[in-house]
Design brief:
The structure is a single chain. This protein is of the alpha+beta class and about 600 residues long. The chain folds into four domains: about 25-270, Metal-dependent hydrolases (TIM Barrel); about 295-385, no CATH class; about 390-485, no CATH class; about 500-590, no CATH class. It has helices spanning about 25-30, 50-60, 80-85, 95-110, 125-130, 145-150, 155-165, 180-200, 215-225, 250-255, 260-270, 295-315, 325-340, 345-360, 540-555, 575-590; strands spanning about 35-45, 60-70, 90-95, 120, 135, 170-175, 200-205, 375, 385, 395, 400-405, 415-420, 425-430, 435-440, 475, 485, 500, 515, 520-525, 530, 535, 535-540, 555-560, 565-570. The strands form eight sheets. Strands 1, 2, 3, 4, 5, 6 and 7 form a seven-stranded mixed sheet that branches. It is flat and about 100 Å long. The protein starts with about 20 loop residues before the first helix and ends with a helix.
Length: about 600
């Protein structure tokens, strides 16, 4: 690392209702401060790790993945009132891939097994997953600082020895901070003495919770939301300082000028932390089976059971089907899925889909491919080809909602393509792509003129049976749609909205053009004589539109140091047009002409 100081203790918005730093803003600020690395250490979670990693690399900053863990006072299985209040903090940074995996394991167990008010780990779990991690003693809520505040120096030394034994001499650091709190000064002094006494290196941090010093009030509001208090409550939880912001390295170096080794060690630690996320390999969660069967065995069994059921249903309608073709395809699909290592993925998805269906949870339409050149409706009403969609574009969903595009995929497809001819174009899709549609029914009136007529809600015939009353929107595979089915398209609701022009946005702020909150005018000559003021804000109504039309067709303008003029040229027989322009200038700009 070339930076003289690196922030190693930072809380982003993923420290829920506590951190007030957004990742994009954090990286931009680190860039502004010429820091070539930065860490995130959110409370008990690693929710932001992937987003942080990807965005940091894009802007040329080294990402350091960490977590400020909650350490249970006893075992993580102990869940009493005392266990909820006796939590201490410990900052862990991933030094390598093994460290990252251990950090993930700690965070996962904390959520799944140790959660009691907060996601917790314990010392026994820490010993099992300590390799590849660098540990910092944390803020005033760390175990060692808390023991120091309680005057328990011997117990603080014992805790320090524990962490030294768990992480190793070069991977445990005593964390000193400069935040303006008197108790912090006391703790810092004790940590300095402990460092000399036990030969444990120091590291300087700032426990950043917000980006700028001015953000402290917004952060206090966030804490109020977390604790259910109001800003008017004198007993509300607060940090008692406005110094927990992302300080420039010059400020940090000045704060710790008497302890240069503490700031130097931030660069040393940052230089040691080297991890790389693999986005090219599939990483699936493991499917936990209740039996001794493997995921492959269970997958094979469930597929064949489902196939037998489907085959019975199909043969009831089509007894002459080529059963061998289906069987061959089944064996082929099973072999491909197993070879790719996907059975666990399919079993996990099947598990939560089945749960959703059994508990009346709506299930989405699944997969399917859309052919290039298919049109997509954007939130602004514009239609573009699907291949021209960019991540971040806002599109209209099947239900008319606006959602941002989060990802897009393009790949070769050897499946049969279905073309659906609808009123506003042709849709080209794979057969399994599901469409938000209504499957139609034929008119029930027994007449030769209606034998092929589709029953529609708008029909004015007086029928005893009304099939359209049973119509319902549903996801239908493209291959199952038939002629006269109804395909649903989103519609953007129209709205009346005033269009306002701020004229200051349309003129160059040259020397002689002036404006205030309400007016815009031109100053003539060196004496700056003011011309007549016109309204700065103009509503785009019928009169304004007419005036613009006249200007486009017949208007001219001249701008110089000695004059500012706008004119219109009409034929001598077009006096009625000239008079209308005069009236429009008066109405729109309050100008006599």
């Amino acid at each position: 690392m070339t930076s003289e100081f690196i922030h190693l203790h930072v809380h982003t918005q993923y420290s829920l209702l506590d951190g007030a730093i957004r990742i994009d803003a954090l990286l931009n600020r680190a860039k502004d401060f010429s820091m070539d690395a930065v860490a995130i250490t959110d409370h008990g979670t690693m929710f932001g790790s992937v987003e942080f990693y990807e965005k940091a690399l894009k802007v040329g900053i080294k990402p350091i993945i960490g977590c400020e863990c909650y350490l249970a006072p006893r075992r993580l299985t102990d869940k009493t009132a005392a266990d909820g209040k006796g939590l201490s903090h410990l900052v862990l940074l991933a030094e390598n891939q093994e460290g990252y995996r251990n950090l993930c394991q700690l965070a996962s167990v904390a959520q799944l097994k140790g959660f009691y008010y907060k996601p917790r780990i314990d010392k026994e779990l820490l010993k099992q997953h300590s390799k590849g991690l660098v540990a910092l003693s944390a803020c005033l809520h760390g175990e060692i600082p808390r023991l120091i505040q309680a005057g328990k120096t011997d117990q603080a030394d014992e805790a320090a020895h524990f962490y030294l034994n768990v992480f190793g001499e070069n991977s445990f650091f005593l964390e000193i901070q400069e935040n303006g709190l008197e108790v912090q000064k006391t703790v810092n002094q004790a940590l300095l003495e402990m460092s000399r006494r036990l030969s444990i290196p120091l590291v300087a941090t700032n426990d950043c919770h917000y980006l700028d010093k001015e953000d402290v009030r917004a952060h206090e509001v966030l804490l109020c939301i977390q604790t259910g208090k109001t800003m008017n409550d004198p007993d509300r939880f607060r940090f008692g300082t406005d110094q927990l912001y992302f300080k420039p390295k010059e400020v940090m170096l000045a704060d710790f000028k008497n302890y240069p080794e503490a700031t130097d060690n931030t660069g040393v630690i940052a230089g040691r932390c080297e991890i790389e996320f693999d986005f090219k390999t599939y990483h699936f969660p493991k499917f936990d089976a209740d039996s001794e069967l493997t995921a492959d065995d269970i997958f094979d069994q469930k597929v064949r059971e489902g196939y037998a059921k489907r085959l019975t249903e199909i043969k009831a309608k089509h007894p002459d089907i080529d059963e061998k073709a289906y069987q061959d395809r089944l064996e082929y699909e099973i072999s491909i899925i197993k070879d790719m290592g996907f059975p666990g993925y399919f079993l996990i998805v099947a598990d939560f889909i089945q749960y959703a269906k059994e508990n009346n949870v709506p299930v989405g339409p699944g997969r399917g491919c859309v052919w290039p050149d298919s049109k997509v409706l954007l939130a602004n009403g514009k239609e573009i080809r699907i291949q021209d969609i960019e991540i971040g574009d806002s599109v209209i969903t099947h239900s008319g909602n606006i959602l941002p595009v989060q990802n897009k995929m393009a790949y070769d497809c050897d499946e049969e393509i279905v073309q659906i001819d609808v009123a506003n174009g042709v849709l080209s899709l794979t057969q399994d792509h599901k469409i938000w549609a209504i499957q139609s029914k034929t008119c029930t009136v027994n007449h030769h003129k209606t034998s092929s007529v589709v029953c529609k809600p708008a029909c004015n015939r007086h029928c005893s049976e009304k099939p359209f009353e049973d119509y319902q929107l549903q996801w239908v595979k493209a291959g199952q749609l038939k002629k006269n089915d109804f395909v649903v398209f989103p519609r953007i609701a129209s709205e009346n909205k005033d269009i306002i022009f701020d004229l200051a946005d349309f003129v160059e702020q040259k020397e002689h053009i002036r404006c205030d909150e309400n007016h815009l005018w031109y100053e003539i000559g060196t004496n700056h004589l003011e011309t007549k003021k016109i309204p700065r804000v103009v509503c785009f109504d019928q009169d304004c539109a007419k005036l613009l039309g006249y200007y486009i067709a017949e208007g001219w303008s001249r701008l110089g140091e000695q004059e500012c003029a706008v004119g219109f040229g009409f034929h001598k027989e077009e006096t009625e047009y000239a008079k209308e322009v005069q009236q429009l200038l008066k109405t729109v700009f309050n100008l006599e002409s």
